Amino acid sequence: METRKTRHGIRIVHGRHIVSELLAQPGPTHSVFDVLAASVAALSPGRDLTMLGFSGGGMLAPLRSLGRDDRVHGVDLDLSGARIFRRLARKWSGDVSVTRADAVDFLRKSTRRHACIVEDLSVQLANRDVQKPDVSFELMPSLIAKRLSKRGVAIFNLLPSDSRTWRELERGVMAPFEVARVVQLDDFENRVLLAGAALPDPWTIHQQLNAVLSLLGSKMAGTLHVRDRRA
User: Fold this and answer.
1) pLDDT tens track for 72-106
2) Domain 27-228 in CATH: superfamily?
């Protein structure tokens, strides 16, 4: 993993993959991080946000730019990205805390219900590729489902896998939830899976996300498609 300076901040990369996009000021990243932030802004029923796999907090610049003042708690085994975030975003970050912990252990020990959980875990492979760990499909979804509030929403940032098809990835993540929607992006290989006890229909979510992304000034507006994965 390496860091690269950009015109607007710092980018954390591993091979060809952007692991996090840190901005010096709130605003759009023009990437999947905008879609994650827009999903929180459109669907979260509360003002607290749990980020599993905080890295450099790439979705917080767009989230704060949207006027969201959610209290954020991040979890990560490696706090190097969080330290860069602290240095770069000190003036505008708001209420953000980051704990060095394994995400599974964190959820098992948690005793409260969460309004919104973003699962953005990834592992960096020796060939400079980045994939989701097996735990993201085998254990994490059920733990997240148990820790959500009644109207809470889970947001998963999915990556393609060498060993699972997209359908297998999606089924593994959505299994414990009553409703799931998948956001596909024209210009990125990521897919964003939204899950919970109740969610708007795909067309409504499509309109909501595009409206929020347009408000943000993100180039991601108009580049996504929302599918119902319960159908």
Assistant:
1) 999 999 999 999 999 999 999 999 999 999 999 99
2) Vaccinia Virus protein VP39 (3.40.50.150)
